[in-house]
User: Fold Tetratricopeptide repeat protein from Streptomyces coelicolor.
Amino acid sequence: MTEAAPTPAALPPHVLERADVRSAIANHDFGEVFRLAKLHGHISFAKIAEAVGYKREHIGKMARPETEGKGVRPRITQFHKVLEVIDGLRIPGHLAGVAPRPWELERPATATRTEDPSALIAQGGAGLWDVAEMLRRTEMSDINSAALESIEQGIDQLARAYPYADADYLHERTRSGLHYVTKQLESRMTLRQHQELLVDTGWLFLLNACVQYDRGQREAANLSKAAALRIGEEAGHGEIKAWAWEIEAWFALTQSRWQDMLDAVEAGHIADQTHSVGVQLYAHKARAAARMGDGRLVRDSLDAGRARLDRLPRPDHPEHHFIIDPDKWDFYEMDAYRLLGDDERAATHARSVIRISTGPDGTEISPMRAAEARLTLGVAAARTGEIDEAIGMGTTALEADRKSLPSLLLVADELDKELRSRYPRETATRDFHEQVMAIKRGSANPELPF
Assistant:
């Protein structure tokens, strides 16, 4: 291959090796990267602007230290812009948590010996044994099948631990997995192995997006979701693309962006029509329709999702985050019926969710779903005049160790509004409202790094 086209702002090796530079890259704090590039690499903002396609003044604003008292400096959050910076500064993909960039795979052209089979083929002089040698080289690899299998098993274990494991633990393990797998993509391997690792990277980005959003890292979660979608497109993997759209639908649902949510659902269905992700997409559509007050669309979506679910085999590991099984369907119906005001049916599904989410020894194996089920029971109790039951259920839900903050707060807000509209003078109502607001204030803190 020919040598990659030069860039005026390529970070020299001694800059890329610095711990502060690597930390800024990992956190996608590119304003800090620009500042350090100028300080330690003597690369002007003008050259950086030329390389990444920004105006020089904008580079200066992003690189401005926040200690200057001019507020929080701008951040780059759009995934395609992140890639432009990575390419413009020649930052290796694994340092930024993305797949190797095309220029990383390019090598300077060197003089080729005439006995090199590739040269002989190009010159039209390759014989039988030269072609055999080329085929042998395509099977040469620095990674074996056992290592690939181990990577897939690790991803599977993380996905199965998602419903109950500590979010910080999952984030650390998933991020470590991304760094390891993307580093392996730089190794010599067969085309089949490269495809498998690319797909593994896609699944890790999907899981990372979910965990980041649970922790309140909205910008980072969007980047991970966009990376997974891009990988799904590059690898031709419909299921990964569909799950990326499902995650976008979830984000939109918790942010009350109904049309964006419906658009994401349709894009997910287009990407994949055979796996259980389609069931989740129908469930999201039903939940959005319930919030929009469209009872007919709720029932049509639930019927379509149930029909898709009934055609699928029962999974061996129903706790896997990217597999939908009949037990999870109670959760989606519970949410829809609560919003439609069908408290009896919502409460029946909520009790079923809590039962299914509890192991034989009393340990909750799906604490996030159980918490939302308790909030549903709280809403039903508030509507029937049982304020003590409503407050008790709501408080227990908010105290759960494993939380998906956006989803939890979405339902907690419903209970909070019911209590304040029906029992505005009760001290318990004010206490619950303050508990919800305290969680919101905590989730509004500056985002954690990628």
